[in-house]
Design brief:
This protein is mainly alpha-helical. It has 16 helices and two strands.
């Protein structure tokens, strides 16, 4: 009983850290948005979190972890915590509410990743239908394949904390959405991508740091337990990967852009942390550092490739989450140690004498997840586009989504006169009247 209590407390703490990642997404996206859209970004994060929890409770958890077949789960609708537990999470001794809370936070992260590519131009009313389709169907199906006892899991595919399940799924659906919605006004001129700077880089970097803290729960909590689990090792591997990812992006930014681009450095952390999510429990610290370094380096040129393809991805979702996820999924096939394979199941990686079997199924899983997420995401966004309209009208986009969608600016004193907020005439400190104590 004592062990179960310790396990439960840790998983709840880890889930709260994953919940904190929503604050990280909010800060990151607000900082990289135009000032006239910052408030709209903030409420977008809030509403999508609420939608994710409700939809995952109603249908997503059942499809992901309920009894069913190799493709989809079909039991446990509107989770009622009847004490039976889902078979695919039976290895964990924590109770059903704790499992649901933790997994619901993962679903919310995947949904947050998707909307990052559609900054400054998507309509508020589209969030609900997409959340139903993504959190209620697309993400749970991938989760069932991998963590819910589905066909990929049955064949040995490994993804400890979601390089593929969360980051590839979210990023590939996200890039499909960016294609469907089209670029922001003024992003591409004369065949070239034009920078549209965010309004607050310090706020964006604060978001990266909050996300980094949240990743400790994201990876460390994925044991769904604490007693006897090498949580410390996972956190060290995760942190090393993040650190090397920042350094890799720093060097590549200087080489390719001639400067230490602040956005690139932030995305270096995100790419590497997404990359290490899948292999964090399977690899040694040096391998975690290598994975993070590779992800941080690859992210920079991928941002430029996406621009060359005339796809507008304002915060670099595909280059960071997408490419990081790809690297993480493949790294499991190369670098899984013999000890980790024995402890957690699966096969050793190619570089540890396990042959090509594990790598082969990692490739199969990556192709299946990426293809399904992109096609399903594209269909979902196209359905929304033709039925209710996905993109804000030109006038609303020019005015800013804060005022056009929500009736108030995120920074009202910047855009509208607020009585008493500023003096009618400029007043110097020297000429200011003394105030009696």
């Amino acid at each position: 009983m004592g062990n179960v209590a310790v396990d439960t407390v840790w998983v709840i703490v880890a889930a709260c850290l994953v919940l904190l990642m929503q604050a990280g997404f909010a800060s990151l996206e607000m900082g990289l948005s135009r000032m006239k859209n910052a408030g709209a970004v903030a409420v977008k994060i809030l509403v999508n979190l609420a939608l994710a929890v409700v939809v995952f409770w109603a249908v997503g958890y059942a499809i992901a972890f309920g009894d069913g077949n190799d493709v989809i789960g079909a039991t446990g609708w509107f989770v009622g915590f009847d004490g039976q537990g889902v078979a695919s999470l039976a290895y964990s001794g924590v109770d059903e509410p704790t499992k649901f809370f933790f997994e619901a936070m993962f679903a919310a992260v995947a949904l947050a990743i998707v909307w990052g590519t559609m900054l400054d131009r998507a309509r508020f009313v589209t969030y609900a239908p997409f959340a139903v389709l993504f959190v209620g169907l697309i993400y749970p199906i991938v989760t069932h394949w991998t963590w819910g006892g589905g066909w990929l899991s049955a064949n040995g595919f490994q993804d400890f904390a979601g390089s593929g399940v969360v980051h590839v799924t979210g990023a590939f659906a996200a890039i499909a959405g960016a294609i469907v919605v089209g670029p922001r006004i003024g992003k591409f001129r004369d065949g070239r991508a034009q920078p549209i700077p965010g309004h607050s880089m310090p706020l964006a970097i604060l978001g990266v740091l909050i996300l980094w803290v949240g990743w400790m729960g994201f990876n460390g909590g994925s044991f769904l337990g604490a007693v006897g689990k090498p949580i410390g090792e996972v956190l060290v591997v995760t942190t090393l990967a993040g650190a090397f990812g920042v350094l890799g992006a720093t060097v590549m930014s200087r080489i390719m852009l001639g400067t230490f681009d602040m956005g690139m450095l932030g995305n270096g952390a995100i790419a590497s942390l997404g990359a290490i999510a899948g292999p964090c429990a399977f690899v040694e610290p040096w391998a975690g550092a290598l994975i993070g370094l590779l992800a941080g380096c690859v992210m920079v040129p991928m941002v430029l490739v996406i621009d060359r393809l005339r796809v507008d991805d304002p915060i670099g979702v595909f280059a960071s989450h997408g490419m990081g996820g790809v690297i993480g999924v493949l790294a499991v096939g190369f670098l899984t140690t013999t000890d980790a394979a024995e402890r957690l199941g699966g096969r050793p990686g190619l570089l540890y004498g396990g042959g090509a079997a594990q790598l082969g199924w990692q490739v199969v899983g990556l192709v299946a997840i990426g293809t399904f997420a992109f096609v399903a995401g594209w269909l979902a966004f196209m359905l929304i586009k033709v039925t209710m309209g996905l993109r804000a009208p030109v006038g609303d986009e020019m005015a800013g989504l804060d005022i056009s969608e929500h009736g108030m600016f995120g920074y009202p004193e910047r855009f509208i006169e607020v009585t008493g907020a500023e003096p009618e005439e400029p007043v110097s400190h020297a000429a200011a009247p003394a105030v009696a104590p």
